[in-house]
Amino acid sequence: MKKDIITIGDAMITFNPVAKGPLRYNHTFERKVGGAELNFAIGCSRLGLNAGWISRLGKDEFGRYLYNFVRGEGIDTSQVELVEGYPTSLNFKEILEGGSGSTFYYRYNSPTTQLTEESIDEDYIRNARILHITGVFAAIDPKNPGILRHAVKLAKKHGVKVSLDPNLRLKLWSIEEAREALYSLLPDVDILLAGEEEAEHLLGKQSLDDYLDFFKGFNIPDIVMKRGEHGSTGYRNGQVVNADPVKAKNVVDTVGAGDGFNAGYIYSYLNGKSLEESLRMANTVGSMVVSVSGDNEGLPYLEDVEALLSNKQKIER
């Protein structure tokens, strides 16, 4: 069966503190599931898209738990394997009173280091509508940018669209390494989903128009800038659209908001929505994610998003 979206990336067991505040003072944690690409796949699946995930997990209790969790979300795991001798990655989150926080990674010797170019099934790529990649997987191992370039090459060979979220994790690699890897991918990207802060890291402090102009230079058809409390800005077919933010009911945890935004945008894109509609959908999903603690617990189902959008439109009238 043809997949709407497939992605490549790591998954982790995330330990969330029960109480807010500095991590050193927290003694009790809840086990959750995390990973940027996996969060995105979950978000897409909950919106009704047929999603697939390419990955490797440790052949341990955490790896088995993740594998079953992902299957339970309706995501295809035919390209996921459990490998001996490589512990499933972990991270511990620190959540501060305002909802912001930090992540502490323990992903050395990640099972995904066992992925190679040969691990990428060409037929699996061919039978997808979009291949979604991020800078997180690229940062985990020096060979991973090459794996992504290979996957992108297969996608372009078969007319599969490519979406990219730079998703910078500067705890995992240097900005110089990030620039080299991400810039090599940009010429083949069809949809760029970047944060304004990420653009500043990559290009230095410039205006929003300057960031858009830089990415236009790679002939990327769809360029989206996620701007947090300022909403989002998109470029398509020579048109630039600014979308107002959607106010969250209560900001509890900002982790995963960008992944939810991406899922909302890709859902709209695949369903032929206009740029304005796609940005509104993406902003709405992102706002729903931050209202719930956890990497993916707040990722909404389609009917919940449609209900919120419908209520908002009634209020605006």
List the helices and strands and how they pair.
Layout: E1 3-8, E2 12-17, E3 29-34, H1 36-46, E4 51-58, H2 61-72, E5 76-83, E6 89-95, E7 101-106, H3 122-126, E8 128-134, H4 135-140, H5 144-157, E9 161-165, H6 175-185, E10 191-195, H7 196-203, H8 208-216, E11 222-226, E12 232-236, E13 239-243, H9 257-270, H10 275-289, H11 302-316
Parallel strand pairs: 1-4, 1-8, 2-6, 4-5, 8-9, 9-10, 10-11
Antiparallel strand pairs: 2-3, 6-7, 11-12, 12-13
What does this structure look like?
The protein has 11 helices and 13 strands. Helix 2 (61-72) links the parallel strand 4 (51-58) and strand 5 (76-83). The chain has a 9-stranded mixed β-sheet with strand order 5-4-1-8-9-10-11-12-13, sandwiched between helices. Strands 3-2-6-7 form a 4-stranded mixed β-sheet. Helices cover 38% and strands 25% of the residues. The mean pLDDT is 92. Helix 5 packs parallel to helix 6 and helix 9 packs antiparallel against helix 10 (275-289). The chain is globular. It has a single domain, classed as Ribokinase (UDP-N-acetylmuramoyl-L-alanine:D-glutamate ligase, 3-Layer(aba) Sandwich). With 317 residues, it is α/β, with parallel strands linked by helices.
